[in-house]
Specification:
The chain is an alpha+beta fold. The protein folds into three domains: about 5-100, Rossmann fold, CATH 3.40.50; about 110-295, D-amino Acid Aminotransferase, Chain A, domain 1 (2-Layer Sandwich); about 305-380, Alpha-Beta Complex (Aldehyde Oxidoreductase, domain 3), CATH 3.90.1170. It has ten helices and 17 strands. The protein has helices at about 10-20, 35-40, 55-70, 90-100, 105-110, 115-125, 225-240, 285-295, 325-330, 360-380, and strands at about 5, 25-30, 40-45, 75-80, 130-135, 145, 170-175, 180-190, 195-205, 210-220, 245-255, 255-265, 305-315, 320, 335, 345, 350-360. The chain has an eight-stranded antiparallel beta sheet. A four-stranded parallel beta sheet has the order 3-2-1-4, with helices on both faces. A three-stranded antiparallel beta sheet has the order 5-7-6, with no helix packed on it. A hairpin with a 2-residue loop joins strand 11 (about 245-255) and strand 12. Helix 3 (about 55-70) runs parallel beside helix 4 (about 90-100) and helix 4 packs antiparallel against helix 5 (about 105-110). The longest helix is centred in the C-terminal third of the chain and has 20 residues, at about 360-380. The chain is globular and about 50 Å long.
Length: about 375
């Protein structure tokens, strides 16, 4: 059985997908959640849970240990970088020198996450996107400040911004666009892409953070004209930036208008919306085939299936998960990213993830919202 290492802020979705695809999984992440460890033969920590930041030294240490195992005969294919690494091209480069990286190369990520390069390419090709400025706008109303190395929307700010805030290389400003936040989940081989489907994203305000990613629903139907335009943009971006493997393209849709926001050059959270189907390769197998052999899916499964949804549940207050609460979470239907007893959470820390399915996006969102509210109400009496 080949071994695959998966690394991310939270590696659970990749670990489960890889295990279903027949890999012996080594998971590297911040949380070491119960279901992550169930899917993996071993788990290695690469940062503190409350920080939501990957520790470079821990990553390189873990990859070094795996590289030594590989040298001694372990059938380790390599490692896949997930959430949190899109803003760490230097770390990706150093990690790839230790153990083969299966995914978009560090040099490509560096270019992709350079606001001047990325939005310059979009502008030169006439691809729609909200207006962008590398300098603070004189009138900040209607603008967002973003960090091109951030993830999950935690880095996005509305004005007013601190007047003494120092500029940094990957900060930029973007006009806020109204509409529905969406994404396209796709497989890339460095030259072309195959779009698996389109998703509606859940984005909410947490204090001073107006655009925190909270979940997704998909695949959802999209008008053929818009689907064709988004697919063409994804394929052009793959060719320009040599994207490889599972990726996603985030965009806004306002009626028939679209605006490209960013590309995630790594397995996205929306991969959970595309479960393995009979007679069809699993997502991690498709990721490896695209990266290693340049193979793309030739078609999308035709069988009709329900729409899937995920919802991140955040701690409403500081809390410590006791044994009773941990047992209750373990038995909760549709729960993922299951924390262990004794774990402490600050307010707004990610607590767990819920999933639901249904025949429409509205039905799925309703089930997710109701499930989240019931879970939080239940925890109030226990945690």
């Amino acid at each position: 059985m080949p071994t695959l290492a998966v690394a991310a802020i939270s590696a659970r979705a990749m670990a489960e997908a890889a295990a279903l695809d027949g890999f012996d999984v080594v998971a590297l992440d911040l949380f070491g959640d119960v279901d992550t460890r169930r899917a993996a033969s071993s788990w290695l920590p690469i940062g503190e849970p409350g920080s939501l930041r990957i520790d470079a030294a821990a990553v390189l240490g873990a990859l070094g240990a795996l590289a030594r195992q590989r040298a001694s005969g372990d059938p380790l294919v390599g490692w896949v970088a997930g959430s949190g690494f899109e803003g760490e091209p230097d770390l990706l480069e150093r990690g790839a020198a230790v153990l083969p990286l299966i995914g978009t190369a560090a040099a490509a990520v560096r270019r992709l996450r350079d606001p001047a390069v990325f939005f310059g390419f979009l502008a030169a090709r006439g691809m729609p996107h909200p207006r962008v400025s590398l300098d603070p706008p004189e009138d900040a109303a209607g603008w967002l400040m973003k960090d091109a190395h951030g993830c999950g929307g935690w880095h996005v700010r509305r004005p007013p911004w601190r007047k003494d805030e120092q500029p940094y290389a990957h900060r930029y400003f973007q006009r806020e666009m109204q509409g529905v936040p969406m994404s396209a989940t796709f497989i890339a081989n460095g030259r072309d892409a195959h779009v698996l489907g389109f998703n509606e994203l859940s984005v909410r305000t947490f204090g001073a953070r107006p655009c925190v990613f909270c979940g997704a629903v998909g695949p959802v139907p999209l008008a053929s004209g818009i689907a064709h335009r988004v697919t063409a943009i994804a394929r052009a971006l793959v060719a320009e930036f040599a994207l490889q493997g599972l990726c996603s393209l985030d965009f806004m849709r306002d009626g028939d208008a679209i605006g490209v926001l960013e590309v995630n050059p790594r397995p996205p959270a929306s991969m959970s919306l595309y479960p393995r189907q009979a007679g069809w390769p699993g997502l991690m197998q498709m990721h490896l085939r695209a990266c290693v052999h340049g193979e793309l899916p030739q078609s999308t499964p035709r069988q009709v299936r329900e729409i899937e949804g995920i919802e991140i549940v955040f701690a409403p207050r500081p809390m410590r998960l006791d044994e009773a609460a941990a047992r209750q979470l373990d038995a909760w239907p549709g729960i993922h990213d299951l924390p262990a007893a004794g774990q402490h959470f600050d307010a707004d820390d990610p607590l767990c993830t819920l999933s639901a399915s249904g025949s429409s996006a509205l039905e799925v969102r309703t089930r997710l919202n109701q499930g989240r509210d019931r879970l939080l109400q239940s925890l109030e009496t226990l945690a």
